[in-house]
Amino acid sequence: MLAVFALILLALVLFATEWLPIDVTAILIMVLLMVLEPWTRISPQEGISGFASPATITVLAMLILSTGINRTGIVQLLGRKMAAFAGTDRRKQLAATIGVTGPVSGFINNTPVVAILVPVITDLAHEGETSPSKLLMPLSFASMLGGTLTLIGTSTNILASDIAAQLGAETPGLDLFAFGMFEFTKLGVVVFAVGALYLMTVGVWLIPERIPADDDLVEEYALQEYLADVVVPADSSLIGQTVEEALGDDDLDIDALQLVRDGERFDEPLARKEIQDDDTLRLRTNRGTLERIVDAEGLTFAGGPRTEDDLHPDEEDPVLVEVVIPSGSFLVGETLASSTFRQRYDANVLAFRSRGDVVRDRFEDISVRVGDTLLVQAPPDSLQRLVQNEDFIVAHEFDETTYRSEKIPFAVAIIAGVVALPALNVLPIVVSALAGVVAMVFTGVLEPTELYSSVEWNVIFLLAGVIPLGIALQQTGAAGVLGNLVASTSTLLPPIGVLWVFYLATGLLTSVISNNASVVLMIPVAASTAQSIGANAFAFVLAVTFAASTAFMTPVGYQTNLFVYGPGGYRFSDFLRVGAPLQFLLSIVTVLGIAFFWGLSP
């Protein structure tokens, strides 16, 4: 037990500090469990059992199915209809955002739903003269609320179902079993309705307007002091050199964004462009570096762009966009320099937003994390390539993006089948989900080559890595010890009070570590506690599941919060300000709902 508790403590520290990517942390814990087999009682077969777990395989299949839905453009179509309905009415915009995101997230994994809708909602906000801050946090929160509607709404539900089934098989007295497709939908509807009402009233009042409705990206990132136009005189030593030779020194931290010659404008790639007399160069650098190079080379300062329109006044499409880094992106863990991002996409990064902090210079060597936002300038064709690459979430919708809209009927029918077959007890969810993947390939909704790129492998490795930790909790008796410890509070609290304590504890834990990891740690303890006080174990498992699926208080508690963190311009404290009251409200609603629908007696 001490060995397992030590590994849990190590896991908590690594998850909370992000010293290692969370999937690497999970695999490390899995390996340590097997290496320490004499103490943890985890054999190699049990250690790698997470890779063969029905939960892991089901989540893998659901990620592929979600990609198939994305390829048809049906979510974007719903988003456009939502925008047409909402117009410039802020209340309609908010209602449409919540009303579309929630129900869709019940049937498609909620993480890709938010990734798809970030550009739709951002554009809706700007066109409707509303601050994106007012809509993007509700988008993330609504997706989490929608994830509580069905078994497949979130990977957390699927994992919790699998753990419950395992515990039920090992200890029949617990009366635990795998969740049905609509096992907790009635409670999910109540939670969604209460959460939506909060977001429409108290929530929208609490959310600050971090980004003014009429602000553009140059002003939002305060780039006016970092963009400058300089004219090259006839006696400058830069003449005859290429842009890379003249300005490519890493110590200078200068990016050449544009070259204007005789009225003709040249954009990326500029590295091999030879500088001539009277050229005008647009540079990104700080004022100190600019002054040094102007003095050294005899350049003439000619002002610079003050707004986004000044960058490319005659372009119909934007050339400046925010790009959010999702999990699974090749950039995660890399720096802009090591990833050769600029060379790959002929794109310049003008600013870097990470965990609420904006960096405007010397960001080439900063390690990129999930949820970081890059302010990117690139030609329209390069931006199109970014849009089509699943390594990025571009916070602007481009009309030229092509979808397989003719496959929408097939995709909808397949998802309906995946949902209906388990609901009718015809097939287990893992079988119906895998059958759905095969059906999508046969019908052309997905190309065979897209199957592997559809999977967020970090999520799969996270699940596979933490599942053995739950087994170790059970087999060493650690879960029972913790359960008895918590059960001792029953001398002071009634069963419903102990249930509420578990909800709050899980919510707090999920705020600092992965929601899937918190489910693995808390469900065995919750089941043991229920058994100790003679309560309904299913009620306790459900409380943990709902608490882990609704992590509102921090941007790092749930992946969808990270997706809106940068584009919404939020600060870390904004999530606590809006999310803490909502989480407290839902803790009461959920616990009372569980007691009402399922009761607390076994």
UniProtKB/TrEMBL annotation:
InterPro entries in UniProt: Cit_transptr-like_dom, DASS-Related_Transporters, RCK_C, RCK_C_sf
Segments traversing the membrane: 49-69, 187-207, 410-443, 455-473, 485-506, 512-530, 537-558, 578-600
Membrane topology value: Multi-pass membrane protein
Keyword Transmembrane (UniProt): yes
Statement: the UniProt record of this protein carries the keyword Magnesium: no
Residues of the RCK C-terminal domain: 215-299, 308-392
GO cellular component, one term: membrane
Gene3D superfamilies in UniProt: Regulator of K+ conductance, C-terminal domain
Subcellular location, principal: membrane
Cell location: Membrane
Keyword annotations of the record: Membrane, Repeat, Transmembrane, Transmembrane helix, Transport
Name of the molecule in the record: SLC13 family permease
Source species: Halorussus aquaticus
Lineage: Archaea, Methanobacteriati, Methanobacteriota, Stenosarchaea group, Halobacteria
